[in-house]
Fold each of these.
Amino acid sequence: MVESSSAAVASAISSNSNSCESSPSKDSTVSAAERSKRQWKYQEKQKLRQVLSPLQYHITQEKGTEKPHSGAYVKLFETGNYTCVVCGQRVFSSEHKYPSHCGWATFYNTADQASINTGSTNGSGIQSSESLSGNTGSCVERAIDTFDGLVRMEVKCSKCGAHLGHVFDDGPKKYGGERYCVNSAALKFIPSSQVNTQTQ
Ligand SMILES: [Zn+2]
């Protein structure tokens, strides 16, 4: 029996049992592999606590919501991209940002539909040309959120699962009618000037 590093164990697990396994809650027959996976997840969370601010951690990992009008990007209308603060995946674009006056940063679409191609993948794995033409919303995922007795549609980063905010159906009608209401603390803004792209 060879003792391998936890990273190797983790990658072996994710490649072996990545199909449709939902994590069992309290199961007495938890396998060594599952225990190792949970340990790995715990370690990842601990690492995130070190790199994220308490607010960023609370919002992205505990589905928190920042106070209205408190976010750094609520009134920002510079040209650029908004990436997930946890993993760096591009999730929104300034192209779709609009002032909804709801107190949070609002977009009527996701970065999948952006025509601003910064090419700033920076090793984050974003395959620009394909994702830009697709209409699947693949840089974010949606999930029903029933927290607090309200039924809302949660929006998460599709790459790392970070909670970003919610999407509502009261956005601008001419752009499809959706309003992505996003916590600034879940985002990192990358101005276009930093990536040498053409502005509109
Ligand atoms: Zn992410």
Amino acid sequence: MLSGGMRQRVLIAMALLSEPRLLIADEPGTALDVTTQAQILKLLRELVDARGLALLMITHNLGVVRESADHVFVMYAGCIVEQGPTRAVFTKPRHPYTRALMACVPKLSGGESMRGIDGSLPDYSDPPPGCRFAPRCPLAVQARLRAPPHFEVAPGQSAACFLLEATA
Ligand code: SF4
């Protein structure tokens, strides 16, 4: 009988057997209590430092991203909509989806009611022709047939939104 944390450690040990240079951790904290999650993240950080590993983490947990990543890529419906140094993206998110995502995180200070993102994900077999976030975007002003390119908004940070065209 192994606990969730033990199972994660076994998986990490197995993944390291072939001495990879890149470790991909897909939702490493899922189904773990907060204490065990912190231990697993600490272990991953130690491995990165000790072995010079590159770590690619895939997660929905913004707290884990903020704590663990140097660089973040925000994805919506299979597309990277914003990327940049973690601190820059969290301090000043520029894409409407990134902003909406961060507004979903409950604040310890309270005060505001938590809100989700209206609508639902597009059908991946028939996605919207232009910006995939358009059907849910509160800032969408007009339908476009082409997907927005990435515009640089700060050194190392870019976001794919037509509203940023003028500022880029
Ligand atoms: S390109 Fe338009 S629809 Fe897409 S995120 Fe920007 S404002 Fe919203």
